[in-house]
Amino acid sequence: MPEQKLTYGIIGNPVKHSLSPVMHNTAFKALAVDAVYQLFPLEEDEVESFLKDVRKTSSPIFGLNVTVPYKEKVIPFLDALSPFAQKAMAVNTIVVEPDRHLIGHNTDGAGFLAHLAELQFDLKGKRIVVLGAGGTARSILTALCLLPQRPESIHLYNRTHQKAKGLVADLGKRMDVGMVAVEASIDDLNIELADLLINTTSVGLHSDDPCLVDDSLIHADMLVYDVIYRPALTPLLELAQARGAKTANGLGLLFYQGVLSFQHWSGMPLDAKIKQKMRRSLLTYA
């Protein structure tokens, strides 16, 4: 029986829109590594059994990414968390150790900050609005709250108010969240005063999705960041561009968190040429 190829992949629901396979398979090819990265769409009741199977010595899987809606739900089935993942209590990268122990990492926070640095956006003293309270919001809020040069304020809104309150209360057990205010209504966010508006929700994945924000609140002196990258131009970003605001989608976040994930799996840094090929592959398919 032929030996199974080294396998990596992404678990979530949905995952069919993900460009992670494009990026990581490009890296494997460039490095001449005989491995494959694939999609693992899972229902919620399949996550535990899937990860149990990954633990088996017969499993060819040695690394995983985790996307919506399982970034928090995988944690009980892991053996340990990296320090940042422990702070955020959200995981987007799983390393399968040689002894088949599963270690959870979070590269979303660092990936987001790296993309903002590329965009030359300085977070110090800025007024920030965050939409959503899922795993990505957890990662971004954690990264922002742990910065030595912190923003002035963060206003958070989620359609389910209690979920947003619960998120901030939970993060507050492990870090200073004093600058974060949870708003009960989207109208209380003071978006018109914001320097940075971040959408971490899935609203915008579909062309008929509504825009969450009233266009009169968007202004030319703000950056509007949507973590969605397919479509490249969501209704929110389209509105923001029409209002003269600077915009960015989540393709840069995807790239930077992906590079960090790959480095966790391989245990070594990627050189600039490989990173360039990974970035170019994303731009080709986005």
Give an overview of the whole structure.
With 286 residues, the protein is of the alpha/beta class. Helix content is 34%, strand content 19%. The chain has 2 domains: 6-106 and 252-285, Rossmann fold (3-Layer(aba) Sandwich); 109-249, NAD(P)-binding Rossmann-like Domain (Rossmann fold, 3-Layer(aba) Sandwich). A hairpin with a 5-residue loop joins β5 (93-96) and β6. α4 packs across α5 (135-145) and α8 (251-266) packs across α9. The termini are far apart.
Sheet with most strands: strand arrangement: 2-1-3-5-6-4
Shape from CA axes? globular
CATH architectural type of the largest domain = 3-Layer(aba) Sandwich
Strand content: 15-25%
What's the CATH topology label of the largest domain? Answer: Rossmann fold
Give the number of domains. Answer: 2
Give the structural class: alpha/beta
**Rg for CA atoms:** 19 Å
Report the top-level CATH class of the largest domain.
Answer: Alpha Beta
Mean pLDDT: 96
Give the helix proportion (percent range).
Answer: 25-40%
- Note the main sheet: 6 strands, mixed
Spatial separation of the terminal alpha carbons: 38 Å
- Give unreliable regions as ranges: none
Write the H/E string, N to C.
EHEHEEHEEHEHEHEEEHEHH
Tally the helices: what do you get? 9
